[in-house]
Amino acid sequence: MMSFLVVHRISHTYFTEKTAVTALDNVSLSIEKGEFVSFLGPSGCGKTTLLSIIASLIRPTEGTVMLEGEKIHSMHPSVGYMLQQDYLFPWKTIEENILLGLTIMGINTQETRQQALDLLKRIGLKGTEHYYPNQLSGGMRQRAALVRTMATNPKILLLDEPFSALDYQTKLKLEELVWQTLKEFGKTALLVTHDIGEAIAMSDRIFLFSAKPGRLVRTFLVPSELRQLSPFHARQHPAFSDLFQFLWKELDSLEALK
C-alpha cells in the first residue's frame, strides 16, 4: 500500500542569468498518515525549498510529490502551511483572519465558521475574536495562525520554523499546544526546524539533510518512549539527551563538509 505522502526523486535547481544553484538533489522519502516528522539540517540544505515543493509553491526541476496516491501539482486544499511569521492581516480582526482560508476556498459556512471559532477557544484565545493582530502577543498571533491553517481541515500540515521567532518559554508552550492539537485531530505534520531539541521533542521520525546540494542523509526513528510523551515531557526524559548528543554530532560533521 502506498504511503500517505510520497516525495519521489525530487531535485531542484535555482537558475539566474549567470548561475545555477542546485538546492535539492534526488530526494525521496515517504510519510505515513498521522505521523509527525521533522526535516533537520544545516542552513542551505534545501529544507524550505522541499516544503515549498510539497505545498506546490515551487515546481521542482525533477521528481514528483504524491498525496494519497495522487500527484500534487497545484495549491491543494489538503495541504495547510504555517510559517515563521504569522502573516495575519493587520486591518482584519482575529475572527476575519482565521476565516480567510474558508472564504478563499468558498467553504465559509455556518458549520465551518463555528468549528474555527471553537478551535480558537480550545487553544486559549476565547474573547479575542474582535481584536486586531497588533493587540495580541507574538505567541497568541501564532496560535491564531494555527487556527487559520487548521480551519480548512487540511490532511497534512507543513510547519516552516513556526516557533523560531518566539521567546523560549512561549516556544515550549506552543510546541506543546500544536503537538496536542494535531494528535487530537489525527493530523499528519511536517516540521522544518534548525532546532535539534524541537525535532526530537515533537517528531516520530527525523529526516537529516546535508547541504549544498540538499541530500537526505539519514532517517532517525525517535524512540517509542519519547514518542509517547508530549514535547515538554519528552525533553525531561533520559533518552532525550542521548539522542540530542548523537544528532548534534551528526549535524556538526555535516556542517564541516559544507
UniProtKB/TrEMBL annotation:
| Record keyword Nucleotide-binding present | yes
Q: What is this protein called?
A: ABC transporter family protein
Q: Which domain of life is it from?
A: Bacteria
What keywords sit in the KW lines?
ATP-binding, Nucleotide-binding, Plasmid, Transport
Give start and end of each ABC transporter domain. 8-236
SMART domains, sorted: AAA
InterPro entries per UniProt:
AAA+_ATPase, ABC_transporter-like_ATP-bd, ABC_transporter-like_CS, ABC_transporter_ATP-bind, P-loop_NTPase
Which terms in the Gene Ontology molecular function aspect does this entry carry? Answer: ATP binding; ATP hydrolysis activity
